[in-house]
Amino acid sequence: MTKQLDVLCRKLGLSFNDPELLGVALTHRSAGARNNERLEFLGDAILGFVIAQRLFELFPEASEGVLSRLRASLVNQGSLAELARHLQLGDYLHLGSGELKSGGFRRDSILSDALEAIIGALFQDQGIDACQRWILQLFAEKLQSVSLDNWRKDPKTQLQELMQSKKIELPEYTLITMSGLPHEQTFKVKCTIPLLKDACIGVGATRKRAEQAAAEQMLNLLNKEQ
Hints:
Elements: H1 3-12, H2 19-25, H3 37-58, H4 64-74, H5 77-86, H6 97-101, H7 108-126, H8 128-138, H9 140-145, H10 155-165, E1 172-181, E2 184-192, E3 200-204, H11 207-225
Antiparallel strand pairs: 1-2, 2-3
């Protein structure tokens, strides 16, 4: 295992019997024919199953429709990209020259696919039990914040209603940067509220997604402050 992959494994809390699987999981299709697309396909299915099973256990009275929406709120490109950024996964990706120049290591789609590919690689290396343990650890904080009371409301709505309940000014969203090719852009948005000095930055494939990501981070920050 290379030193770089060894560092990442420690950060992920994982070890691989076949380190080459992790290397493939981090390789984008722009870098060559041997890339992470097949592992991403596998990891996507495993992630959906593990989260669905956990939600099934947590909410025994919830209908199929509600469970589906709860799963979608957790297993989506923005959510996965946020986790990938927390793990600094972009620093370890193997991208082609074009993606490197356009900042592909910051793009939600590439980050989320890489995270799912790691899950697929872990399954190939150690099986479903190891995948389940790691996924539930990775999503522990997000699973704790899920409730049937707020599943219908997106982060921007939740944050706005919170500000209204405190009778203070509504959140302000400012576009910081917009980069990338016209068909695959990345937006960075800053969210500020009167309650806190710190701003939160959200990144997404659209301005709306970036605003939602910034609002979600602000909600998490408020919860920690409380």
